[in-house]
Write a structure and sequence with these properties.
This protein is mainly α and 150 residues long. Helix content is 89%, strand content 0%. The chain is built from three helices and no strands. α2 packs antiparallel against α3. It is rod-shaped, with a radius of gyration of 34 Å. The two termini are 26 Å apart. 4% of the residues are buried.
Length: 150
């Protein structure tokens, strides 16, 4: 049997590699969006902590019997700024959650397309192997038959 008969070449290899690249790009895009989401969650947590600190500072400023009006106004303005930033983060996160869902679907579709080609490649490789085994077996039997009983 010559080498050409034994060698397996997947005719859709370039398409399979393209699908793998698409899948990898989808995975990277998903990871990037998820990191953005994580950053928003961290920032929201930080804002919550700052808001709690501001509330405590306001209590401290009014609990001593002497009201520091400038401090209360500054704290109120700061709370409003925190609330505005928090509202912006909530909106951004809502958009990111939608993006994450769309990107997960795109990633799953890319993975299915890649897997389909990998399965096809494996089946064709197995079929080629079985074909080579049959050819080898037939040649072996032909060699035995041609040598015959001496």
């Amino acid at each position: 049997m010559n080498a050409d008969e034994r060698e397996f070449v997947f005719r859709l290899e370039s398409l399979r590699r393209l699908r793998e690249r698409e899948r990898d790009e989808c995975r990277q895009a998903l990871a990037l969006i998820e990191r953005e989401d994580d950053a928003i969650l961290v920032r929201q947590s930080e804002l919550k902590r700052r808001q709690e600190e501001t509330v405590q500072q306001t209590r401290d400023a009014t609990g001593l019997g002497i009201v520091d009006l400038d401090r209360l106004i500054a704290a109120s303005n700061y709370r409003q700024a925190i609330a505005a930033e928090h509202a912006t983060l909530v909106r951004q996160r809502r958009e990111l959650v939608d993006q994450i869902e769309r990107q997960r679907e795109a990633t799953l579709a890319a993975e299915r397309r890649t897997k389909m080609l990998e399965i096809l490649k494996d089946k064709q490789r197995l079929r080629r192997h079985e074909q080579n085994e049959r050819i080898e077996s037939r040649r072996f039997h032909e060699t035995l038959a041609s040598n015959g009983p001496e």
